[in-house]
Every structure is written in C-alpha cells, then in structure tokens.
Design a protein that fits this description.
Non-ribosomal Peptide Synthetase Peptidyl Carrier Protein, Chain A, 81 residues
C-alpha cells in the first residue's frame, strides 16, 4: 500500500509539472533542469495542496530545498502520514 501511494503522489506531481512546463519528467528529474520560475513553483505546490488536502510549511516553500522531483514527493508523503 505504501509504495502504491508513493506512486500516486509521484504521478500527480509529474502530471502537474507537465501541465505547467509541457515537458516530461520522472522522479529523478532535477528541478534546476526543469527550470520552474517562482510563480510556477507556487502553482505546483498549490495544486499539490489542493489535491491531497495538505499545507506546506513556510520553510518548505523554497525550491532550492528540492534537488529532484522525488524530494518533493517525500515531503508530500510526510504531510499525509
């Protein structure tokens, strides 16, 4: 079950990034290569918050904290547990 939920979170984050940037990514895609600007990053986080009914902490709102897509998924999982 746990792995299945991780897959759901990952798929949603990947689909949101595609909607914003129109590029295909995977869990290892680096945010520096995805090249989200600050508005796009906030849009991504708001989409995640709305979908999973979570709220990111202020200190988690910094794109530089996340090396790759999987790092963001880990934070989502932490909020849902």
């Amino acid at each position: 079950m746990c792995g299945e939920m991780t897959h759901i979170y990952l798929d949603f984050v990947i689909s949101c990034i595609y909607e914003i940037k129109k590029i295909k990514v995977n869990k290892n895609s680096k945010f520096v290569e995805i090249d989200l600007d600050s508005i796009e990053f906030v849009q991504l986080l708001v989409n995640i918050e709305n979908k999973f009914k979570i709220e990111f902490k202020e200190e988690e709102l910094n794109l530089e904290l996340y090396k790759n897509v999987n790092d963001l998924v880990k934070i989502v999982k932490k909020h849902i547990k």
